[in-house]
Amino acid sequence: MTALIKQLSALSDEALRQHFLALPPEDLRLRFGSSLSKEALNSYVDKINFEKDAVFGVFDDSLKLAGVAHLALDPEHDAAELGVSILPGHRRQGIGTALFKRAEAHARNHYIKILFMHCLSENRPMVHIAAKSGMRVVAAGAGETDAHLELPPPDAANVANELVQDKVALWDIAMKAQLLSARKFARAITRKNELG
Fold first, then answer.
1. Strand pairing partners for 86?
2. How far, in Å, CA of 24 to CA of 178, rounded?
3. How far is CA 105 from the centre of its chain?
4. Do 62 and 173 contact (CB within 8 A), yes or no?
5. Which of 85, 86, 93, 82 is nearest to 130 (CA)?
6. Roughly what angle, to the nearest 10 degrees, separates helices 95-109 and 156-195?
């Protein structure tokens, strides 16, 4: 699957809830640093400020969020923190790296100077993505790892690339929605024909 990444809005809050609820308990622990209840996950989604932060998603063929990146922007300190989650059936397809790069581009385009991640040291996929993406990875003690990357200022190519990615992802979502509708229609016709 090609990772076409769309910036999400508050209208995607239900899709975000479903994504987090579909993660196995161990994945939730690795993503958030501790196990979270359904209520805590709902509260997390409710507290996302889509006007300030950026949330990115990769939709699979059934229009479910296969991967999500939450970029919490802190312009006052010229910094942003990134958290990423990928559903088990969509791993090792480059989605995590693609989400990282999209978040990095967005942070640059908002004049953020430092991108950082904080995760459990045992979260090997995130530590791998951080190192592969050029982040400086250091042990933070107590089984935790910090990673940070100094970002260059935006340039025209970076701004244009982010705009194009969002438009292509929107087109992809529209095509997947049409295909899903066509499949439902075909199943309904088949069922009707079978029933006589």
1. 67
2. 30
3. 14
4. no
5. 82
6. 140
Q: Write the DSSP string, the chain.
A: ----EEEE-GGGHHHHHHHHHHS-HHHHHHHHSS---HHHHHHHHHH--TTTSEEEEEE-TTS-EEEEEEEEEEGGGTEEEEEEEE-GGGTTSSHHHHHHHHHHHHHHHTT--EEEEEEETT-HHHHHHHHHTT-EEEEEETTEEEEEEEPPPP-HHHHHHHHHHHHHHHHHHHHHHHHHHHHHHHHHHHHHHHH-
User: Alpha-carbon distance 100 to 133, whole Å?
Assistant: 8
User: What domains can be seen in the chain, in order of their start residue?
Assistant: 5-195 (3.40.630.30)
Reported as a single tens digit per residue, the pLDDT across 14-60 is 999 999 999 999 999 989 988 888 999 999 999 999 999 999 999 99
User: Which amino acid is it at 20?
Assistant: F
Q: What is the pLDDT of residues 153-171, one digit of tens each?
A: 988 988 888 888 888 887 8
